[in-house]
């Protein structure tokens, strides 16, 4: 039996813009509770957690926090302003009797030194510092909103182990199934403003939810039949014709009102991929390719064959070079050595986790149609953009809004809608699960299972990798990559361990270096400048243009009699070719350096 509640919310109500978000919602946390809050995007999970943390005041209901209880809350977007270092930020969350050493221990465990300037941190580094702050006091009650966002696999698994060892009560929101399954023993489902509690962890939730929805549908059908019967009596009953029985009429009115006021389950997203003609049987062939960044190898002696229909997952810690490897495999970046051969008739579509492909000032409609009318072609059929976006749970009003007005989950669905409307037989997905709710993830997994093309997936979601991938390409360190058959769990079984943090190795090295070298390493945390962002956008096209010019020069030199016919022209072309190849190599190195810096920042 559960002990007295450390925190309880009863009959919580909250309305935004005339629409009730929470209607009589309850939440109770006692010692030993490990509660996950689940529900669709926009159902009120984060709002309920903020009410529990005392940061948002509800319109109605009661909130009780046991006196003397230490509560810590992790928001989705931590605010580190006003602190000189990450250590100062974490130490500010300690209480009078807390151990100050724990603050530094947690920062180092999460790959930070404590000396970082919060103003120059990436999203992932901010999340790590915020986690250290809420964990440092060893609180009685911990409320975590999407704690795995921006974390790589080593950090996620470290966090799992750390939370498993804590004695505190826990309430968390996450889209990571494996994370929820390992940590929770209670599930609270927020559905149409109400809360339903299951005394089991997330692993039992989906079957329980489906059973409740089936029962609800049966009850609605019974209600429909009863309304029909009552209406028949009103119209044709003998008594009704004489005096219209007031009680029966009132009951019918109450039934109709109940049906009108019943909040239906929010619509399910519908997805279908627009598939191009089939590619050749061999999609990508990499033969002993190498790539280095300065003295650091990114890819070393990798040979890989990707056939039509393969589903390749690429995993490794942040900074391992996953994005660089994808650019090499898809022909956007040349290897230092070796060769990458692309198959015939390839139609590639890519989903970028940075949402960089979205113009915040364009409307949702323009983003899908590229400003060309109000229809989009999906699998050979013309569809109105409003109807198509409705499949992805966008309202007609949202279709006219700018992208800047969308939430993270809505932007994720918009990118999916655009990518899936583009004909493809090779799909590259970079962290496709970010900001998607669990139901949309289910649908995406079903779509990818039916996709006849080839997939390359980068993800930190272990459950997603298990469900989707036929093989895993794992970063083993020092530029070495090994392919394992099966999903992520199969890879772990074959290796004997999962992904290990690269950050820990770097930190051990940094501690032994001189202060000047530490500053040089720390400079990677600086934000990309405007010039660097511009170069990241323009260098790929510049490198491609150089490649085309180089091919023209090589073709000209290949003329059989050029040397004997026009020696001066031969020498001029040869010199120009050498110069162009050197310039392209420099541009590729600059591009690679910026990509590596961007990838470090995303960590």
Description:
This protein is α/β, with parallel strands linked by helices. Helix content is 43%, strand content 22%. Strands 5-6-7-3-8-9 form a 6-stranded mixed sheet, sandwiched between helices. It has a 6-stranded mixed sheet with strand order 14-17-18-12-19-20, sandwiched between helices. A 3-stranded antiparallel sheet has the order 2-1-4, covered by helices on one side. Strand 8 and strand 9 (194-198) form a beta hairpin. The model is unreliable at 238-244 and 503-526 (pLDDT under 50).
Question: Nutshell version of this structure?
Answer:
This protein is α/β, with parallel strands linked by helices. The chain is 43% helix and 22% strand.
Number of domains: 3
What's the arrangement of strands in the largest beta sheet? 5-6-7-3-8-9
Largest sheet: 6 strands, mixed
DSSP strand (E) fraction? 15-25%
Give the overall shape, derived from the CA principal axes: globular
**Radius of gyration over alpha carbons?**
29 Å
The separation of the N and C termini measures: 42 Å
CATH topology label of the largest domain: Rossmann fold
Second rung of CATH, namely the architecture of the largest domain: 3-Layer(aba) Sandwich
- Looking at this structure, what is the CATH superfamily of the largest domain? P-loop containing nucleotide triphosphate hydrolases
State the share of residues found in helices, binned by percent.
Answer: 40-55%
Which CATH top level class of the largest domain fits? Alpha Beta
Which class do the helix and strand fractions yield?
Answer: alpha/beta
Low-confidence spans:
238-244, 503-526
Continuous helix count: 22
Mean pLDDT: 81
Tally of extended strands? 20
């Amino acid at each position: 039996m559960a002990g007295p509640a450390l925190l309880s919310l009863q009959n919580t109500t909250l309305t935004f813009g005339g629409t009730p978000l929470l209607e009589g919602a309850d939440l109770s946390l006692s010692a030993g509770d490990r509660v996950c809050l689940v529900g669709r995007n926009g159902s009120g999970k984060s709002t309920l957690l903020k009410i529990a943390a005392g940061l948002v005041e509800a319109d109605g209901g009661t909130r009780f926090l046991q006196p003397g209880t230490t509560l810590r809350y992790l928001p989705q977007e931590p605010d580190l302003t006003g602190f000189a270092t990450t250590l100062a930020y974490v130490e500010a969350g300690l209480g009078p009797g807390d151990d100050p050493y724990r603050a530094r221990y947690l920062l180092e465990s999460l790959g930070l030194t404590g000396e970082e300037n919060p103003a120059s941190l990436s999203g992932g580094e901010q999340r790590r510092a915020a986690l250290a702050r809420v964990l440092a006091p060893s609180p009685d009650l911990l409320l975590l909103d999407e704690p795995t966002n921006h974390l790589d696999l080593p950090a996620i698994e470290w966090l799992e182990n750390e939370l498993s060892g804590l004695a505190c009560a826990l309430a968390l929101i996450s889209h990571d199934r494996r994370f929820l399954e390992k940590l929770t023993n209670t599930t609270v489902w927020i559905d149409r403003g109400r809360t339903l509690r299951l005394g089991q962890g997330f692993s039992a939730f989906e079957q329980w939810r489906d059973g409740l929805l089936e029962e609800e549908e049966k009850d609605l059908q019974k209600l429909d039949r009863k309304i029909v019967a009552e209406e028949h009596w009103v119209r044709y009953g003998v008594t009704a014709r004489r005096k219209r029985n007031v009680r029966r009429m009132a009951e019918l009115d109450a039934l109709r009102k109940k049906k009108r006021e019943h909040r239906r389950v929010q619509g399910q997203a519908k997805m279908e991929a627009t598939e191009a003609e089939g590619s050749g049987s061999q999609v990508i062939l990499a033969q002993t390719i190498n790539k280095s960044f300065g003295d650091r190898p990114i890819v070393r002696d990798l040979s890989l064959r990707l056939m039509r229909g393969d589903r390749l997952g690429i995993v490794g810690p942040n900074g391992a070079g996953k994005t660089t490897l994808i650019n090499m495999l898809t022909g956007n970046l040349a290897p230092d050595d070796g060769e990458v051969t692309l198959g015939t008739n390839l139609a590639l579509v890519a989903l970028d986790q940075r949402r960089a492909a979205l113009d915040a000032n364009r409307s949702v409609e323009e983003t899908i149609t590229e400003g060309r009318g109000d229809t989009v072609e999906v699998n050979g059929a013309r569809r109105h953009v409003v109807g198509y976006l409705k499949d992805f749970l966008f309202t007609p009003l949202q279709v006219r809004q700018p992208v800047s007005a969308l939430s993270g989950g809505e932007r994720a669905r918009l990118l999916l809608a655009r990518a899936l409307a583009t004909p493809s037989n090779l799909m590259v997905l970079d962290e496709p699960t970010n900001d998607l709710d669990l139901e949309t993830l289910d649908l995406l997994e079903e779509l990818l299972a039916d996709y006849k093309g080839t997939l390359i997936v980068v993800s930190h979601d272990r459950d997603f990798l298990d469900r989707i991938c036929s093989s895993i390409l794992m970063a083993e360190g020092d530029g070495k990559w090994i392919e394992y058959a099966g999903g992520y769990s199969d890879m772990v079984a074959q290796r004997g361990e999962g992904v290990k943090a690269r950050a820990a190795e770097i930190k051990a090295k940094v501690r032994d270096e001189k202060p000047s070298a530490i500053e040089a390493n720390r400079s990677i945390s600086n934000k990309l400048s405007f010039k660097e962002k511009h170069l990241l956008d323009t260098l790929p096209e510049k490198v491609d243009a150089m490649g085309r010019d180089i091919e023209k020069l090589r073709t000209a030199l290949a003329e059989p009699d050029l040397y004997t016919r026009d020696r001066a022209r031969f020498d001029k072309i040869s010199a120009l070719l050498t110069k162009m190849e050197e310039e392209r190599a420099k541009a590729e190195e600059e591009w690679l350096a910026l990509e590596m810096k961007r990838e470090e920042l995303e960590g």
